[in-house]
Design goal:
The protein is of the alpha+beta class and 174 residues long. The chain is built from 4 helices and 10 strands.
Length: 174
């Protein structure tokens, strides 16, 4: 006879826990949607045009908000290779090369890492490095990436697909 109240109490406790989980999910979902809308607006308002590639280049990196509300800014190739948000997608290696050709040289047509990095707002720090995925795979274990160091830019470097790199999106000009 005493088992019935114990079971009923356990059921009530589980129902309460389920309600709490649903409330957390409901709070998180608008946050993800709001975040996506904010990023789309930001990309549309803050981009630079690469005429030779026929692309708009977002001047802010792609990111996601995880279940805990933390900002994720680096991704493995498999996570982002097919990313497409309202036409915003990863550039191919060929497009990174075109972008570098258009923005990576000074007024005397000399390759200039600082001009490239500052024009695309890839970093605000001097003498630092960065890596951005392209959508082009090299093999089952490697994919292409743009990388820059203190003095050079390599628009067609490659590395292991499981490595976490930043993502900069592009969109075709219509």
């Amino acid at each position: 006879m005493e088992e019935k109240p114990i079971i009923e109490n356990k059921i009530k406790a589980l129902e309460l826990e389920l309600d709490n989980v649903k409330k957390r999910i409901d709070r998180l979902e608008p946050t993800k949607q709001d975040n996506r809308s904010k990023q789309l607006e930001d990309w549309e308002n803050n981009n630079i045009t690469c005429k030779s590639a026929g692309l708009k280049i977002a001047l802010n990196d792609y990111y996601e908000i995880d279940e805990d509300g933390d900002k994720k800014t680096e991704f493995a190739f498999e996570e982002v290779k097919n990313l497409n948000i309202d036409g915003w997608r990863l550039p191919t290696t060929k497009e990174w090369i075109q972008i570098y050709s258009e923005f990576g040289f000074d007024n005397n047509d000399v390759p200039d890492r600082d001009v490239f990095v500052k024009t695309l707002m890839l970093t605000e720090y001097e003498n630092c490095y960065g890596h951005y995925w392209s959508s082009t795979a090299l093999s089952s274990s490697n994919a292409y990436r743009l990388r820059f160091y203190s003095s050079n830019v390599y628009p067609a470097g490659y590395y292991y697909r499981f490595y976490g790199y930043s993502v900069r999106l592009v969109k075709e000009i219509k």
